[in-house]
Every structure is written in C-alpha cells, then in structure tokens.
Write a structure and sequence with these properties.
single chain; alpha+beta; seven-stranded mixed sheet
C-alpha cells in the first residue's frame, strides 16, 4: 500500500479513477499535488505497447471521452478531468520514464501495479524550491525551452547553465524540414504547431518566420473515432482489418 495517502487520493480523483494496469502516472500531476497546487491533467505512461492498447480499449469501455489524438499522446476527458495516455515510447520502470523527462521537478511517478510512489532523488527538493534542473536526456528539448516560460510564470527559477544546456540540446535535434521543426516544437504531446509558409526550409528561414509570425498550436479537436479500434488504427498502433479496406 502506498504512503502519501492524501496525495494519492487527489491524483486518483484527477484521473477520474482511471487506473489501467502496467502503467505509471508521472510528471506534472505529481509536481502539482506535492507542491499543493491543483492538478491540471494526469499523464499515463505505459510499460508495454500491449498495455497501452488495452488501456485505450478500457477508456472507451469506461465511457471516457476522447477529445484529441496525436502520434505521441491520446487525450480523454470526463467532466473537468483530463487524462493523457502517452505512447511516444514505452517504459519498463519509473526510472526509464524519468530519463525521458526534461526537469527533475517532473520526476515523480505512481506505479499503479505496485501501488507505490517512485521519486527521483531530487524531485521533492527541487519541487519545494521551485528550481528547474534540466535533464539533457529529454527527447524534446524545444518543448522544454517553451516550458521554461510556463514554469517561470509559476515562480520557478532556472540557472544560466541549464538554459545554455537546453540550447545545446536543441542544437542536436535534426531539422531538415518545416515538418521537423513543427514536430520538435510540439514536444512529447505531439501538439500541432502551425507554421504558415511556403518558403524552402532552412534554419535562417525558420528564424525569420518566427521573428515575424506568432506560431500557434491547434487546440480544436478533430472528430475523434467513436470506438477504440478506429482510434488505434488512426494513431498507427494497429492495422486496419483487410475486409474494411475493400
């Protein structure tokens, strides 16, 4: 049985009591609850591809409402509760989840199967200090760069060295097209960044575009499939049955 019963109950409530097997609740929900802030949404990370597929089916069976889906995450709602099922990768352990994160203040997890919290050694300390320590293993440093502003608005601080480390990690991201840039900015949720241009891509062209155009993230949901199988086909997790292709 997990300790921190009060925090756990708040997380479960924010997740609409949706607790699929072989998964972790990790990231911002834990940061919020352990710093006394309201939980905006709950992110679920899965141990296997099969566990994610099973969770999608369970979400539809549980009558959660699918509102958005990308090649990295699927968002469900029930009332005011928002639950995001991540599938950009799958993770055998909480430590593996943390290794994909950008800041130590996000490195807390609840292992649903073990009914136990798992914390990075610096999670509680940095969260209480509102201190952003960058983790260079993150998959999406451009997203981290934008997230800095969100955290700073909440009173977090970031050292100059960590800011430079984010910039250097951004330099390692392959950018060969406007699609690459949009995907990099979209971060782990795969948000849709609109870059309205017909110019040939180059980094110089991207700098000029962003200097003169406020890029936006699409928030209006597409028409989402009405059942789990159609959604899993849409996001590429299963293949469409052959008889439906005829």
């Amino acid at each position: 049985m997990s300790s921190h019963t009060g925090e756990l109950n708040k997380i479960k409530q924010a997740a609409a009591d949706f607790l699929p097997a072989n998964a972790f609740i990790a990231g911002g929900a834990l940061t919020s609850v352990f710093t006394g802030q309201p939980i905006n949404d709950v992110d679920l990370y899965f141990k296997t591809r099969e566990a994610f597929i099973a969770a999608i089916r369970l979400a539809y069976e549980s009558r959660l409402w699918c509102v958005f889906a990308t090649d990295r995450a699927v968002t469900f709602k029930r009332g005011d509760d928002t639950i995001q099922l991540m599938h950009f990768d799958f993770f055998e352990s909480a430590a593996a989840v943390f290794d994909a994160f950008d800041f130590t203040v996000c490195m807390g997890a609840y292992d649903i199967d073990a009914d136990a919290f798992v914390f990075h050694p610096d999670f509680l300390k940095h969260a209480s200090q509102r201190y952003l320590k960058f983790h260079s293993g993150t998959r999406f440093p451009f997203g981290s760069l934008l997230r800095v502003m969100k955290y700073q608005a909440r009173g977090y601080t970031l050292g100059k060295g960590d800011l430079l480390r984010i910039a250097l990690c951004c330099h390692q991201v392959r950018l060969e097209s406007w699609e690459d840039l949009a995907a990099a900015i979209g971060g782990q949720y795969g948000e849709r960044v609109a870059l309205d241009t017909e110019a040939p891509f180059s980094v110089a062209a991207a700098v000029a575009l962003i200097a003169n155009t406020e890029f936006t993230v699409a928030v209006a949901p597409d028409d989402m499939p009405g059942n789990a199988e159609e959604l899993l086909v849409k996001i590429g997790l299963i293949k469409q049955p052959k008889d439906e292709l005829l």
